[in-house]
Design a protein that fits this description.
Isoleucyl-tRNA Synthetase, Domain 1, globular, alpha/beta, Gyrase A, domain 2, single chain, RNA-binding, 21 helices, five-stranded parallel sheet
RNA sequence: GCGCCCGUAGCUCAGUGGAUAGAGCGCCCGCCUCCGGAGCGGGAGGCCGCAGGUUCGAAUCCUGCCGGGCGCGCCA
């Protein structure tokens, strides 16, 4: 019974462990983990299942572990070389040469679909991100949201979900009016109004718009032209950053299509709307919010919240099953009311997810750059890219959990550009490319022959077993990719990929040190070249998820 | 005052119940007749904020406290 090229050998191994645990008739085995022991001498993989089962079986965990070990000996057969019980009841598995050979073959058979997931139930996910007001350039803070949101979108796609990237354009309302007034003031040669936009770009924009015949008297027109000009700039910046949207959803469209009225009508119909003090309110306290919220102000204008309800209702009507909406930390107080609004519409609020983006401080010369858009005193994403490049910018911004505020030290990012972590990973990729070129597997004219080579190497019978510890360590690392992608996608945690990429690069460098590839004995060379091909694809895939390039040469 | 987030090595941060807590940077010591030294190996450096609790086992879960960030508008 050969099951060659199992698409995910680790998943298969985990399934065997779970099946064996279930066979012991205890409850609670479902939470069992399959992980790597802290020391390689302890085994290739380890499970804690016995300790979880012990209470239900009313038996000492060591004893349960021994029974589990016996069951696994039967089910794993020749895949396992040895199975131990250790410590309080860990079951440690040492896998055989055969298993390693099959695992290598499976990596190569996966081709460029490496890491691709197939969830039990693929979801339609709408990732709305950046959504910065079109009243100024993209700031670094918004850039972090862009890097994060785009990586989450890429992750969800690779994990097998259907993803739409959307930018919500606040091209209506108070801020746009202020923006228009600021432009008009500059056209007259005046200072912008109190609370207006003081940035130099406003003056430049005023000049451009005047040259194109815009009038300083028509604020609606100025607002429209001004926000459209900024939108184009924003789009260009994000494009440069490697971020592209499937759709730009205009707030103005909500008004034009009477979607706000429709949303409020539905809320009223469902009995959650009331009027007092001349305003129209939504009773969000009924759904866990700590105070009720205004939908229509006493002056008759809908609030931002009302527009946002209409927008999210529209997302639901477009059949989005999950609404992933990274928000700046200063908006986190907004989440309970949005959840309440969705609940009031009869929508499960858990479909709405708002990961909170904590601050990123740009530090230069030991000082924090200020980033107030209205005061025009900020670092733009374009400036950051000019400074440290797209790859470093995306790598650094995704490196840390979205939930953690961190300092991005420009001096460090610049001066470290030789020893930058991003180059560490990219260097591994370039080195791999070089080895494959040397071996003739990369082909002189490009990577075309690499795939053909991989296919021929995917026949496990031609491969030597990975015998060296460094080979096995690298192989096991590569096998983790599907699980890493799944976990990172589920947790909306692309920063895990950085850690994985670094670990993969480190394992590769150790392998490179210990294992001669080109010129090794025939089966060994084939196996090692196969490992190189798979490693190169793994690194490229992982970096690709972060939007970082994988150079063939550096 | 209330709510959310954070507190882990000198610095920036990983680690959402497992074995002796990790990475990068910085510091110290080694390694290029050999597939790329943008690399590798070794070392120093930790009351995982504090105090209780839960359990076979806690950086991880619960409670309280201390410290920091961000919110608490008929602004967006």
């Amino acid at each position: 019974m050969t099951a060659p090229a199992d698409p995910d050998p680790l998943a298969a191994l985990r399934a065997s462990v779970l099946a064996a645990a279930e066979g012991l008739d205890g409850a609670g085995g479902g939470r069992a983990t399959l992980e790597r022991p802290p020391k390689p001498e302890l085994g290739d993989y380890s499970t804690n299942a016995a300790m979880l089962l012990a209470p239900a079986l009313a038996a000492p965990s060591r004893e349960v572990a021994e029974r589990l070990r016996d069951a696994l000996r039967g089910s794993l057969g020749s895949s396992a070389e040895r199975i131990d019980v250790a410590g309080p009841g860990f079951v440690n598995v040492f896998l055989s040469d055969r298993w390693h050979r099959e695992a290598t073959a499976s990596l190569l058979a996966a081709g460029d679909r490496l890491g691709t997931g197939r969830p039990e139930r693929p979801l339609r996910v709408l990732v709305e991100f950046v959504s910065a007001n079109p009243t100024g350039p993209v700031t670094v803070a918004a850039g972090r949201g862009a890097a994060y949101g785009d990586s989450v979108a890429r992750l969800l796609e690779l994990a097998g979900h259907e993803v739409e990237r959307e930018y919500y354009l606040n091209d209506a309302g108070t801020q746009v009016r202020l923006f228009a007034e600021s432009i008009a003031a500059r056209m007259r040669g005046d200072e912008p109004p109190e609370g207006g936009y003081a940035g130099e770009y406003v003056a430049e924009l005023a000049g451009e718009l005047a040259a194109r015949g815009a009038s300083g008297d028509d604020l609606d027109d100025l607002g429209r032209r001004g926000t459209e000009a900024m939108r184009e700039r924003i789009e260009a910046t994000l494009e440069r950053f490697g971020v592209r949207f499937d759709s730009w959803f205009s707030e103005r469209r909500l008004y034009a299509a009477k979607l706000i009225d429709a949303a409020i009508a539905e809320l009223r119909e469902r009995g959650h709307v009331f009027e007092t003090e001349g305003a129209i309110w939504l009773r969000t306290t009924e759904f866990g919010d700590d105070k009720d919220r205004v939908l229509i102000r006493a002056d008759g204008e809908p609030t931002y919240f009302a527009a946002d309800i209409a927008y999210h209702r529209d997302k639901i009507e477009r059949r989005a099953e999950r609404l992933v909406t990274p928000l700046g930390a200063d908006h986190h107080g907004y989440i309970p009311r949005m959840r309440a609004a969705l609940a009031a519409l009869g929508v499960d609020p858990d479909r709405y997810e708002a990961p909170i983006m904590q601050l990123v401080n740009i530090v230069e010369g030991g000082q924090r750059a200020r980033m107030s858009k209205r005061e025009g005193d900020f670092v733009t994403l374009d400036e950051l890219i000019d400074d440290i490049g797209v790859d470093a910018a995306r790598f650094f911004m995704v490196q840390r959990s979205h939930d953690t505020a961190f300092d991005l030290d420009l001096d460090l990012a610049r001066s470290a550009s030789q020893d930058n972590p991003v180059y560490y990973v990219q260097y591994a990729h370039a080195r791999l490319a070089s080895i494959l070129r040397k071996a003739g597997a990369g082909g002189a004219g490009g990577g075309g022959d690499e795939a053909a080579f991989a296919v021929s190497a995917a026949d496990e019978s031609s491969l030597a077993a990975a015998a060296e510890p460094a080979e096995r360590a690298l192989l096991r690392r590569l096998l983790e990719l599907p699980g890493e992608v799944r976990t990172a996608a589920e947790r909306r945690a692309p920063h895990r990929l950085i850690a994985y990429a670094m670990a993969t690069a480190a394992d590769f460098h150790a392998f490179y040190r210990d294992c001669r590839v080109v010129g090794a004995e025939r089966d060994t060379e084939a196996a090692r070249l196969g490992l190189c091909v798979a490693t190169k694809r793994t690194v490229a895939t992982t970096l690709g998820l972060i939007g970082v390039g994988s150079p063939e040469r550096m």
